[in-house]
Amino acid sequence: MIRFFTPLRxxxxxxxxxxxxxGFVLVPPGVQLPxxxxxxxxxxxxxxxxxxxxxxxxxxxLVWTIFLAVARFARPADxxxxxxxxxxxxxxxxxxxxxxxxxxxxxxxxxxxxVVQGIAVAMGLLLLVLGNAMPKSQPNSFxxxxxxxxxRDPGNxxxxxxxxxxxxxxxxxxLLVAALVAPRNQLVFxxxxxxxxxxxxxxxxxxxHARQRKA
Length: 215
What we know:
This protein has helices at about 5-25, 50-75, 75-80, 85-110, 115-135, 150, 155-180, 185-215, and strands at about 30-35, 45-50.
């Protein structure tokens, strides 16, 4: 059984709401805040203060609702097998949107914030955490690299998630370095590559592993 309401997650949710409230107090009405950044790292989408500050809160509420609903209606065996990865993912996603909320409030009060760099650091840390969690998961249809080859073969699942975990950790380390040294107009490409490459490589490995065992 997944324990959703841990002290850490409740503290993160409380901090998110507190930051949003602080934003309404500190950011003047009528200010447009960035909510989207283009491939060059420059903000190209803006919303009024009210909508921008509520967006991370709404996304976290949606994420929690989905996780709770899936845990409620999925098979108990699947929920238990994916319990560790699910808990880590929920904590990390809540923390990331808290960081985004903090950055938007800082922008609203006039601080100079490189949001893409901040997101890259957050995603790098997320990859490190997920990379550590992935090898600890068991075959399930709830959380992990879920595809026919991994779900049919526990050995394939374990091998794929061990490799995926190592690659995610490497991707996280590379992304953290890139966040510090890569030019701003290249950072989005580093972000996309470091997130997608480990999962794509693990997926290909799972297919090759299944083909090899079948042969």
